[in-house]
Amino acid sequence: MPIRRHKVVISLVLVGGLSAALAGCAPGSSDTAADCTPAPDGTHVVLKHSWWAPGFEKVVDLWNDTHPDIEVQYSSVPAGASGTYTNYLNAIQSGTADDVLSIEYEQLPTFRSAGGLRNIYDCAGVPEAQEQFSDSIRSITSFGEKDSVYGVAVDTAPMGMYYRKDLFEQAGIAVPTTWDEYYAAAQKIRATGGYIGNLSSSGQNWWAGMAIQAGAQWFNQSDGTWDVSLTSEKSLQVADYWQQFLDNDLVETNAFGADTWNQSLASGQLWTVIGATWTNGSISAGAPDTSGKWALAPMPSFTGEPAAGTWGGVTFAVSADSEHPYEAAQFATWVATDPDALALDVEAAGLFPPSTNALEEVPSLSEPSEFFSGQRIFEIFGSEIAPTVPAGWQWGPTMVETYNSLQSEIGTALTGEQTLADAFAATQSATISAMKAQSIPVNG
């Protein structure tokens, strides 16, 4: 059963369009819970919703079949960073946004800053639905604020370590559980001619996941003013840790998913992939002949205590323009928590549901994977890995600029022209400049 990749890489060409759209938007959303009154009995409500997840129209069809008074008109659109987010923000500016917006976690602050989101905490069923989500997800969708919900989580992507079980066993190397052990294993693997891992400039989202796992906080907001902390002690711990791999030729630096990356997977040159739930599909597609040789383990950690990052995930947010916030919230929570919806989320749309009930409600999530040595990898992700994602992480309001700077600066670091710590520092400066350019209050 595939879990598809719903994490998209933000392209450099989007910076101008998305920033321009955001700059033209005046805040209009309320920070207090929105009025959430159902439409009068007998009213036929029509909601508009769009997303880029293949197969999600089947989930919408089920909703429409079982909720005849609340019709969802669904449109399949390009991935958010491929134009949809710009279209959303332009619609917010003109007051014509869809009722339900599909927004990745890291983009929620952008849309809130644009005045495009409703706080749906007071909508019936929303607080109860939040109880099915982890603290780490609730802190993101509430911005850490009391009585606040700005998005209902429908997809998540906790990170683990995929590894070549056969190669580790043949070499007599223990599967690492700490980052110190991972580094020691890297040295042994390099002596055999292989590489323990790969660092990619196209994986800027991956670096955020590593920071999340380490307990870093790149962004915080207090009284309307932001702090940017890519150079905090825990964030630089991540940069400095991976710098030693670059300095000692212990990792490859191929673009994630590129032919060279696939070739390293297929040849046995690459021994581990630190990736998310959806990465299993990238591995199996890139190296199909290695079926049965891979396995999944939790990420190593700095402390030895279980901790995971995340790399992807989507929320359904009710727009400030919606005339039917109650019905829109009902649709969003149904997609995220209803047992029949959860089954289709997985089987038709390839989602990994954030609901803690998903493993019980969707038997296919517990199916063994032949490719991954018969492991029930999604059960491992759901029961062992996802609960260990640290709570409290906040995304910033200019993630397009942050990610584009990080992608460029990491690329420079991978060539040896600067360090990863330099890349983080340059990205912090670029982020603060972007916030100031958009008149977003920020320290620094």
From TrEMBL:
Keyword Membrane among UniProt keywords: yes
SUPFAM superfamilies: Periplasmic binding protein-like II
UniProt xrefs under PANTHER family: ARABINOSE-BINDING PROTEIN-RELATED, POLYGALACTURONAN_RHAMNOGALACTURONAN-BINDING PROTEIN YTCQ
4Fe-4S found in the keyword field: no
N-terminal signal peptide: 1-23
Keywords attached to this entry: Cell membrane, Lipoprotein, Membrane, Palmitate, Signal
Organism from which the protein derives: Herbiconiux ginsengi
InterPro entries noted in UniProt: Bact_solute-bd_prot1, SBP
Protein's recorded name: Carbohydrate ABC transporter substrate-binding protein, CUT1 family
PROSITE patterns cross-referenced by the UniProt entry: PROKAR_LIPOPROTEIN (PS51257)
Superkingdom of source: Bacteria
Gene3D superfamilies per the UniProt record, alphabetical: Periplasmic binding protein-like II
